């Protein structure tokens, strides 16, 4: 098992200033056995925290224990699942009080730089900020979009901020469930703004839209080409379109792009009922336009709370979460089933060689699955 590592951006001179670690997830039952000893989530002989200790630690805002709690949630070992759920159950009454903000944009749009600047601004306003990430590639590479970045150096050292790299996929609902549950843990630990970063390259922005209250899309200038290529669908998910890098020689262009985006947004369906999605400019690098964006988010919160759209959306998101977990769980139990694993290659071959229809193959597999469930 790999040892815990501090992220590269942590300051070697001030080892105490960073309480998060990049830790490899627990992948196998064998690894889990090392972690688990008589109901405890712990390393062998290390006297690690129990669920009760984790609950208390998270509620007290203890960052070390919060990090341990998240590691428990992220564990892919089945035996950790019930402990993680017990922990969440304990913490559930203390969740839900933050504003959850999603940030997407193409690679290089400046998401990480924006979070550094925006997060630091919020900390200065006395908020406590948690940064999470949904990385569509991490389930394949095991990597993390935040792991290799030095863009959040300042925020990472801020005692009011907590940065957690993207979990790797694995089983039992994968990244989707882990990020949502981590969000709840951070809320119970007293973080009042949760920022979720994701690269805008496909499904991940839809997943993040489904777990946040306010969703923003970071874009660059050169709007002419970009607008033509940009999928209308992504813009329709956004509560704000932010034209970043509005600084130096680019400032004028950025203002022009903002007007163009506004013209298009005007004719699109708004993402949130009663809220007009508009374009704004900012410079994440020089921290200009940041306060204005926060003002808009506060306005959004007030307005949607009053109209009940805020709470309605959260209820709907929770409901959809149930259904996505059911299908994840079905998917997982189906494909890990020993009889299915045994029969699948043979039946698959029969279909490919034209000896069998797809529907009859699937029917047969489900028969096998259901029969052995009842054994
Ligand atoms: N001039 C200028 N440069 C910026 C600004 N924001 C970000 N950059 C630069 O743009 C580059 C990409 O920024 P990142 O913050 O890493 O972008 P990202 O969207 O997080 O990129 P990925 O993580 O790869 O998806 C870096 O070189 C930043 O310094 C800005 O407001 N102005
Ligand atoms: Mg980034």
TrEMBL record:
MF (Gene Ontology): GTP binding; GTPase activity; kinase activity
UniProt key word Ribonucleoprotein: no
The keyword Electron transport is annotated on this UniProt entry: no
GO cellular component, one term: cytoplasm
Coiled coil: none
Domain of life: Bacteria
Keywords carried by this UniProt record: Kinase, Transferase
Family annotation (Pfam families): MeaB
Gene3D superfamilies in alphabetical order: 1.10.287.130, 1.20.5.170, P-loop containing nucleotide triphosphate hydrolases
Family in the record: Belongs to the SIMIBI class G3E GTPase family. ArgK/MeaB subfamily.
Protein name: Membrane ATPase/protein kinase
Annotated source species: Bacillus methanolicus PB1
Organism phylogeny: Bacteria, Bacillati, Bacillota, Bacilli, Bacillales
